[in-house]
Amino acid sequence: xxxxxxxxxxxxxxxxxxxxxxxxxxxxxxxxxxxxxxxxxxxxxxxxxxxxxxxxxxxxxxxxxxxxxxxxxxxxxxxxxxxxxxxxxxxxxxxxxxxxxxxxxxxxxxxxxxxxxxxxxxxxxxxxxxxxxxxxxxxxxxxxxxxxxxxxxxxxxxxxxxxxxxxxxxxxxxxxxxxxxxxxxxxxxxxxxxxxxxxxxxxxxxxxxxxxxxxxxxxxxxxxxxxxxxxxxxxxxxxxxxxxxxxxxxxxxxxxxxxxxxxxxxxxxxxxxxxxxxxxxxxxxxxxxxxxxxxxxxxxxxxxxxxxxxxxxxxxxxxxxxxxxxxxxxxxxxxxxxxxxxxxxxxxxxxxxxxxxxxxxxxxxxxxxxxxxxxxxxxxxxxxxxxxxxxxxxxxxxxxxxxxxxxxxxxxxxxxxxxxxxxxxxxxxxxxxxxxxxxxxxxxxxxxxxxxxxxxxxxxxxxxxxxxxxxxxxxxxxxxxxxxxxxxxxxxxxxxxxxxxxxxxxxxxxxxxxxxxxxxxxxxxxxxxxxxxxxxxxxxxxxxxxxxxxxxxxxxxxxxxxxxxxxxxxxxxxxxxxxxxxxxxxxxxxxxxxxxxxxxxxxxxxxxxxxxxxxxxxxxxxxxxxxxxxxxxxxxxxxxxxxxxxxxxxxxxxxxxxxxxxxxxxxxxxxxxxxxxxxxxxxxxxxxxxxxxxxxxxxxxxxxxxxxxxxxxxxxxxxxxxxxxxxxxxxxxxxxxxxxxxxxxxxxxxxxxxxxxxxxxxxxxxxxxxxxxxxxxxxxxxxxxxxxxxxxxxxxxxxxxxxxxxxxxxxxxxxxxxxxxxxxxxxxxxxxxxxxxxxxxxxxxxxxxxxxxxxxxxxxxxxxxxxxxxxxxxxxxxxxxxxxxxxxxxxxxxxxxxxxxxxxxxxxxxxxxxxxxxxxxxxxxxxxxxxxxxxxxxxxxxxxxxxxxxxxxxxxxxxxxxxxxxxxxxxxxxxxxxxxxxxxxxxxxxxxxxxxxxxxxxxxxxxxxxxxxxxxxxxxxxxxxxxxxxxxxxxxxxxxxxxxxxxxxxxxxxxxxxxxxxxxxxx
Length: 1067
Known about the structure:
There is one protein chain. This protein is 3% helix and 28% strand. By secondary structure, it is mainly β. Among the domains are: 109-265, no CATH class; 288-422, Immunoglobulin-like; 430-723, no CATH class. Strand 31 and strand 32 (622-623) form a beta hairpin. The longest helix has 13 residues, at 5-17.
């Protein structure tokens, strides 16, 4: 960091113009809070302001102006401090004992506060306290040699309102009393009222601001080695002089100091290097916490580093709030075995805007907890911290010997290392991603998230144990991936894992695990509650390894073969009619997708997920995952290879003799291909067009009602991307165009809309709040992007918000009784789309078990829809829990989780306290648009529709394990890469790919998602702790599927405290 002529001249001018003790006039802090709190005003050495620190204000273009502002809060640092605009130097003491007026006198330090000080928190009256100038530990004045680490209390006198501790002991036990030595008379003259006070600054001659030294809200320190103020003294030469106030300092009203303070200066020019503080001899370890071999450290820890003086924040690392976490040239934080060392990116933040000597390092993700050791792999629990010399800059401005026109700071000259070991806790996560994943919420004492792996052959984090020919439950399934088992030379290379870092999947329907082999991949304190979840945009549009500066922002990182312009998605509908199939490298973009469009939800990476790699692809953004298998293996590529991992037997028969291993994918139709970027090229013309890249996965939005926030995760790595504070978040609905997330706030009767478009200037900000009925809870975004429907349970209404304006356009109440859940269907327009009524319908679930039907407009004369609730389905679903659209049946079908299975012959509900999953649909109806006439406008009814329940699953050996509370479907076969279907009633244009619409157009309208399995969360199982039941939708009667070939009988996924299930097209 260099100060130019303008900055140096500006600093010189300011120093001359400063009031001797007052410093630069400060703006009002935006961090005020209660007026009763004790706050610092400023710290001065008489020659200028030491605290608050100052910086040139940046203009709207980010250029320094001549206006100097005080740094009063962390936001000031974010707004104005960077390497091109450093914090300005502080004034030094004169080498001679002189006062601000130029007259001979003692050096001093003055700190002014907003309230009268509690002397008991500052002065220690015990007999031995004079070794520390009579100060408590809450206040200290220390001279420190940064190179040797020697730190000594400065001998001197401390005053508040002209009162120091006396020298004579009194009482039993003996104590030093407070004595008044100095006062300000009625003429404003500082006077020694006790001869011992003569020599206190101002008693030997007036200088501007000298009266401020005598106040009940001011602290003054005067160096005094001979117990005689009349012999003028300086602070020690060759040391950093540090005055610190901790938050233990209090005002007389009992309020503590709001923020810690450290003022620092030198006697004469500051040529002392800023160093990390060391512990006392003989260890002299760097003062880094945790460090020094600490064990059982919380894996979610931050790291605190203390320097000998204030330092420039940007020289320590990326300032929190200015950019994503990155690696630092000053401090290296790494973990993992020697063969797989991982550098941890982090951001930094000073402890206080008034103490720039202590910094907290915020890791980009949690450290792995202590976990199992496999062979020579080692554990990932040791964290090493290295201090690099020549990187940390202080605030000094010394002439540059090479260019006297510029000024440079001092840099640290000492290196050092320390380490700590984490205790038990969450490990690193590399989970499979959609379309091969189902997300589970878990409640209870340890709320969080688990992921059901539907691929079964990926190389994520997991148990690497493997015995050839002996499949064992919980061991890795990855070696059975046919592309690993039967061929070599894949790009990038794949090999069987040896650590939990690359151990791989345990097989289809097993839960993904972290490096500590926990099957809960998100846990507290990352979340305190998981009430709802949804997946948003693919991550690779925001975080990818394209050549600097287009993707990878670290140095000159990245690959030319990962550039957006080469990502050309060329595909059509596969032979089975339910998936997309790539047509080969290059060609046209399906559905009008622009080059560089995000990874399609239709394609799984190979493997799913790819393994973590060392070193990482990029450190900013931090991409630790290997690229998916390359398009280089395309038949037209430089290294043609056949993808051997195809649909087949995902389970094998481990109980047979000899055991039969798994041999193929769970999906009935191929969904993973070799589509990753070309490898090893340095010229873009040698790269093939590709279709999928890192970062795989999506923005995962998690509603944490208890914390009052939405936590945004990377769905692959389960690292926190963002936290969005909310009022009382209750449930989600997502725009089919992936641009907005609607959140009901039950206690405030509002719906908040959050921008979730990564290309938007207001990304992850609340852009609209809409007032609705009372107690909003369930919410659905109509798949054609027409309306947002909100169940208002407290006043028995349904608020309907226009997707055009985000304003409530109507509110209906007919036949609603504590409505709490809703699903909306696409408008029935186009051949194949239901009964072609050219309206959309929505089902509303009442607490009494009735299901109300809403019909959209246009209403009125010449209209053909009532835009109102038109009736109640002729079935009662006792103790209802949840609604979800049936993604296959386009004839207004919905699945309902409830109690008491429906008798499909009589339509009567069954007994309470018995779990049930029922499919409600319109089994017959008059087709076509039915106009309203003058005779039937306002006369609602079920409009010639006949409802049926053909399937109602109860509890049994091949039915439910208990009472279900939520429903989801697999997404392994989908057409999500095609455009959303819109109508003239839709807001905006169609999203060309990855939209949340329920249907697509391929000639006629067809369903978008063709699941093979339905998942039901069952938290309370007789004799158990919670399971996810999986139902085979192709089996007559929809029977429960045995998901575990290692155990006899029909098994479910064991998930203690499961509370919800989620797939990509959840409403």
